[in-house]
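Hey, can you fold this one?
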Amino acid sequence: MAGKGVTQGPATRRNRERVKPGAASAQAGRAKRTRGTGASYVYDSLKALILDLELKPGTLLDETQVSRQFNVSRSPVREALIRLSAEGLVQTLRNRTSIVAQFDVGALPAYFDAMLLLYRVSARLAATNATPAQIERLWQIVHDHEDALHRGDMKSMVRFNHDFHTAIAVMSGNPFFTSWMRGLLDQGQRLLRLYAHNLGDHVPDTVLKPHRDMVEAIASGDGEKAEEGGRADAQALIDAFKRNLSHRPAALLVLDTSRPRKLLAK
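Sure. Predicted structure:
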């Protein structure tokens, strides 16, 4: 999406920032789009910007302005916003205004519980159902994840974490677990970006040890060890995030949802 004119509003009046995610690439994307793909294009682009925190919580998503930026009518923009709202990434206010969803502090305990449960059950089932090809793919994701860590490429790390746990959920053989895992990881991607940002985008090498333990257990068909690896992976992230949150709560969460930020034309 061309980031033309995206600004942060009332919460950051003194230091307003413009989100510029790359006009050239957005224009190229528009040139390649075929008829009827507008809604998917807007949805995919907005979702990526939201998950990477290029569109911050509370940012106003005005249908008219978004349609101009994507060079589409308002209908595909409206469809994209409805899909994002169903996924909890966009919030529709009483006046039908749409904003990027805020982080709900009160929902964090429930989110952590769901993460623990899904990580554990999907890993245990994967140990029973995974094929050699799926295990090989899982190892490749781990290697790519480690390479991204050593490069300090946090965006890629977050993406590979998403790919890793989604792949394990697919291995479970239960499509409901796969769907739930994708939704959970989409919500968690913003949390991971915040967590990494407050570490200066530097994450210790040991963070990926549970992933290796999980793949080894899945490959050997040991459901108990695979589940324990999933539990350890989730718990390590929960503990780290809680420590970070307790030290810098104001930097992590936007608590005032009463005044949406604006997406303004340049």
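The chain has a mean pLDDT of 79. Let me know if you want another pass with a different chain boundary.
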